[in-house]
Write a structure and sequence with these properties.
The chain is α+β, with helices and mostly antiparallel strands. The protein has four helices and six strands. The chain has one domain: GTP Cyclohydrolase I, domain 2 (2-Layer Sandwich), CATH 3.30.1130.10. Helices cover 31% and strands 30% of the residues. The chain has a four-stranded antiparallel beta sheet with strand order 2-3-5-6, covered by helices on one side. The termini are far apart.
């Protein structure tokens, strides 16, 4: 059994840290949807920014750090942790979808900052 290669944390996190920009709409709660593709998976990142955002082009470059990771659960968990640690969003939702032959996998993970609650905003999202 071959060990799965994980993306280099230092390079990945440094790239993300250097890619974020200030949130231009700090006075409002709103949802950012970013979609990206990897060779074996599609990624959906949704988040409510607090102070920082990541532009779509930088997000797609960030996903290249996962080119050797095959586990949807691992990809989803690492993205959630990285975005939580570097952007500190009020709310975050990560989806990873994979399809190989006749097998499909769909992993969803969410988190929110303590005390943040905007049910009206989240109710507008399409249910899984």
């Amino acid at each position: 059994m071959t060990a799965e290669l994980l993306p280099k944390e230092d390079e990945r996190v440094l790239f993300l840290r250097n890619s974020v920009v200030p949130d231009p709409n700090k006075s409002h709660d709103y949802i950012i949807d970013l979609k990206g593709k990897m060779p074996d998976a599609k990624i959906l990142l949704r988040y409510v920014p607090d102070q920082l955002i990541i532009p779509l082009d930088k997000f797609n470059k960030y996903l290249k750090f996962f080119k050797d990771v095959k586990s949807c659960e691992k990809i989803a968990g690492i993205i959630l942790d990285d975005i939580n640690n570097e952007l500190l969003p009020s709310w975050i939702h990560v989806e990873v979808k994979s399809k190989k032959d006749d097998t499909k996998q769909h992993v969803v993970i969410e988190d929110s900052q303590p005390g943040w609650n905007n049910k009206e905003l989240l109710m507008r999202l399409k249910r899984i």
